[in-house]
Design brief:
The complex is a heterodimer of chains A (334) and B (455). Chain A has two domains: 165 residues, 2-Layer Sandwich (Aldehyde Oxidoreductase, domain 4); 141 residues, 2-Layer Sandwich (Aldehyde Oxidoreductase, domain 4). Chain A is 29% helix and 24% strand. Helices cover 25% and strands 23% of the residues of chain B. Classes of the chains: A alpha+beta (334), B alpha+beta (455). At the A-B interface, strand 1, helix 1, strand 9, strand 10 and helix 4 of A face strand 1, strand 10, strand 11, helix 6 and strand 14 of B.
Chain lengths: 334, 455
């Protein structure tokens, strides 16, 4: 009887957005009289930080600092339609809608600035700090604060824009299954290292090294929080969780966190995250949806590592000590 | 976390101001100081509490329902049964033309899973609602139930859901979603080795910190404001409008920060009945799942069975792959027909295989309906695919990582569902994993690229 060590690898891809498309999201953007910007959506922030990302996308597109953007969302009386926050679609779909709305608002903003500066709007650029400058002659400039005041009170212009993003729905061909499930895919490769106690069947995940390709890390800190959390969830799916431990038998299902097993802080592996960025053609600033796929590769990587450690295949999830011990017993009997 | 900027630097401009910056989340201070408001923080004078009477049986006919004792219970204000729900038989994906309507808001004549909602009790306090619910008498005739997907698909199995007429979802392509590419049998015939293996998962709970729920307030103008933690505002509003036969203009849905979704809050379960309660009593209503309801009543990730048959050559090429996937929908569709369809679009994984055959089934059994959960349709499929890849590599005596390089898809490769690959990055992820994990592979694999050759 011994503690045995093993490692396993898994590589995956994952489609961004609602499968087969047909899932629209809209956004509205407008400026306040003093040149702050409001993004109005009906999308839902699930705690992943969608509001923050939409603010950064709007700020980048308009050309202002993020702290000058406010996001109002999840209210059906004010926000235009969004299909919902699921299928790794929030950033991709709503982000594109925000870009379109922000571009339209930016165009009006530049037109008003052009009138104030008596130049062509096409000769103007933003400095990202809240000013609009004449290209090649930055001493000739106007603040966005003053442009918004002028638009509101002098020139009667609405600095606002509408955005809509829709991937047309694909209908699978009945006989061949020809279809377009998604327009862009995120990728991952995970290597997991485990120890298996062949006396108790217990698995300890020592390290998980994840490489994720996500198009563009719009906010690297928030990408990290989602990828680390996903990686933990993957370990949890591999080793612990189910509402029906003896499926298809309906009995013995947990009804609280005492009975429903999940890893505690002490059960989590040393987790490494490496991010690659291959911008997608239709993503907002190249972003893909990593929200779901980041929890997938750990499951087979852990399963393969368990085999590498003790030489038995557990092809039924979760990989519990009971299943490992039964497999070891069967192996010894053969 | 590290960003490896050296990969794909030639196709990426790093000239942005706000994007790519690790700005602090504007909502974090509220979360960590307890100031963020969640739906359940709403409290209204005179608010009623809704509790469900649930089926104790997996499959049963309802002979009669007697609510007379419950109605006399102190604090009880209203008791709702199927006849009170204007459009009681519904299905949520009807909004994107995926039918048939197959589920009841409150059971009508039959229950099809243990825990199904039968009677709703509205009372002044949570305790009164709970106690009164226990006094509702339902006379059941227990029917044979089926829990195993293979059993459910056999002729003569108990019929789970009459609205489907058989124990599987009928796609326009027939009993399953199909993908056919190349000639899979010819591929097997020419392969050096054949490996057929079966994989199984069981249902998994989303386990959000905040359980599913809503608080409904009737406004003075015939409108109803529903404070909810749904993941999809208009999807829920529009389905509620159908179920209650109430114009959408009468409904105002307010969300906000959700305490974890993971796909567990897109089923439209609590809102319609709570709004109906508010309409019929004229009082605010809250309906919040207990932890037990969240774990055993709300939809889990579906159990799946995946059978993979591969033909592989000694040199490492996979020449044929046949995948048969089974998604256990439980008693009702919810999002499961979509999940099984998503699986068909995902197999055979990120590998270029010339001959592919895919069948994915959505199967009905007498268990808690499954539905959306982070990655559903793909997560369990990836477990099966990637364990299978490990087995194949060992079968032909090849390093598991090198074996994946040989088969990895690249830009321009035709996928089984007949879309050319674009924006691939699997090879680069594996190259970086090889370095990070100190898992060396041959130099020729480290020199590979996802780009189209010569482009």
């Amino acid at each position: 009887m011994a503690i045995r060590r093993g490692r396993g690898v898994a590589a995956i891809n994952y489609p961004t957005g609602m499968n087969l498309g047909g899932d629209p999201t809209q956004a509205l953007v407008h400026s306040t009289p003093t040149g702050n910007f409001m993004v109005t959506l009906s999308s839902v922030d699930l705690g992943q930080g969608m509001k923050q990302i939409m603010a950064q996308i709007c700020a980048e597109t308009i050309g202002v600092p993020t702290d000058r953007v406010v996001v109002d969302t999840a209210d059906t009386d004010t926000g235009p339609h969004c299909m919902g926050t699921f299928a790794s679609r929030g950033t991709h779909r709503a982000g594109n809608a925000v870009i379109q709305a922000a571009r339209e608002a930016r165009q009006v903003m530049l037109e008003v600035a052009a009138e104030e500066l008596e130049v062509n709007a096409s000769d103007l650029e933003t400095d990202g700090q809240g000013n609009i400058l004449v290209k090649g002659a930055p001493q000739k400039s106007i603040s966005i604060f003053d442009v918004a005041l002028s638009a509101h009170f002098k020139r009667g212009r609405s600095i606002s824009g509408r955005g809509m993003f829709l991937i047309p729905r694909s209908y699978p061909e009945k006989e061949t299954g020809a279809m377009k499930p998604s327009t862009c895919y995120a990728h991952a490769c995970t290597v997991a290292e485990v120890e298996v106690d062949d006396e108790t069947g217990e698995v300890t995940v020592l390290t998980v090294k994840n490489v994720f390709e996500i198009g563009r890390a719009l906010n690297p800190k928030m990408v990290e929080q989602q990828l680390v959390g996903g990686s933990w969830m993957g370990i949890s799916h591999a080793l612990y969780e189910t509402t029906e431990p003896y499926y298809p038998n309906r009995d013995h299902g947990g009804t609280d966190f005492n009975q429903y097993l999940m890893p505690g802080p002490g059960d989590l592996a040393e987790t490494e995250i490496i991010v690659l960025e291959r911008p997608s053609a239709d993503g907002p600033y190249g972003a893909k949806g990593p929200g779901e796929m980041c929890a997938n590769p750990q499951i087979p990587a852990v399963a393969n590592a368990v085999f590498d450690a003790v030489g038995v295949r557990i092809d039924t999830l979760p990989i519990t000590p009971e299943r490992i011990l039964r497999a070891l017993k069967a192996q010894a009997a053969n | 976390m590290e960003l490896r900027k050296s990969y794909f630097a030639d196709v990426r401009k790093d000239d942005l101001h706000e994007i790519g910056q690790p700005r602090p989340r504007s909502d974090s201070p509220g979360h960590v100081t307890g100031k963020t408001a969640f739906f359940a923080d709403r409290n209204f004078p005179g608010m009623l509490h809704l509790k469900m009477v649930r089926s104790p049986h997996h499959h049963a006919r309802i002979r009669s329902i007697d609510t007379s004792e419950a109605e006399k219970h102190p604090g009880v204000v209203k008791i709702l049964t199927a006849k009170d729900v204007p459009h009681n038989v519904y299905t949520i994906l009807i909004l994107i033309q995926v039918g048939p309507e197959d589920e009841t808001v409150l059971a009508d004549g039959k229950v099809r899973w243990k825990g199904e909602a039968v009677v709703a009790v509205l009372a002044e306090t949570e305790r009164a609602a709970q106690e009164a619910a226990a006094k509702v008498k339902v006379d059941y005739e227990v029917l044979p139930a089926v829990f195993d997907m293979e059993e459910a698909l056999k002729p003569g199995a108990p019929l789970v859901n009459e609205y489907h007429g058989q124990n599987y979802y009928l796609y326009d392509s027939g009993e399953c979603r199909k993908v056919r590419f190349g000639d899979v049998e010819a591929g097997f015939a020419g392969a050096d080795h054949i490996l057929e293996e079966s994989y199984q998962s069981s249902p998994i709970e989303h386990a959000p910190t905040e359980t599913t729920g809503c608080v409904v307030a009737p406004e003075g103008n015939d409108r109803f404001t529903c404070y909810t933690n749904t993941q999809a505002m208009f999807f829920t509003l529009d389905n509620t409008s159908i179920i209650l036969q109430m114009p959408g203009s009468k409904l105002h849905f307010v969300g906000g920060t959700v305490g974890g979704g993971f796909g567990g809050k897109v089923d439209v379960i609590v809102e319609p009945i709570a709004i109906l309660g508010a309409k019929l009593t004229g009082r605010p209503v809250c309906f919040i799942y207990s932890r037990e309801e969240e774990m055993q009543i709300s939809s889990p990730r579906a159990a799946e069975k995946v059978v993979i048959k591969d033909g592989v050559m000694k040199d490492g090429r996979i020449v044929a792959r046949k995948v048969t996937g089974y998604t256990d929908a439980g008693a009702y569709s919810r999002h499961s027909p979509y999940g099984a369809q998503k699986g068909a679009g995902h197999y055979p994984g990120p590998y270029t295989i010339p001959n592919v055959w895919i069948d994915t089934y959505c199967v009905y059994t007498n268990r808690t309906p499954s539905s959306a959960m982070r990655g559903f349709g793909v997560t369990i499929g990836d477990f099966a695919l990637e364990v299978q890849m490990d087995k194949l590599a060992r079968l032909i005596g090849m390093d598991p990582l090198e074996f994946r390089f040989i088969n990895a898809y690249r830009d321009g490769d035709m996928k089984a569902h007949r879309q050319p690959t674009e924006g691939a990055a699997l090879i680069e992820c594996m190259q970086e994993a090889s370095r990070a994990a100190n898992w060396p592979v041959a130099e020729k694999y480290m020199a590979m690229s996802s780009y189209v050759k010569g482009a």
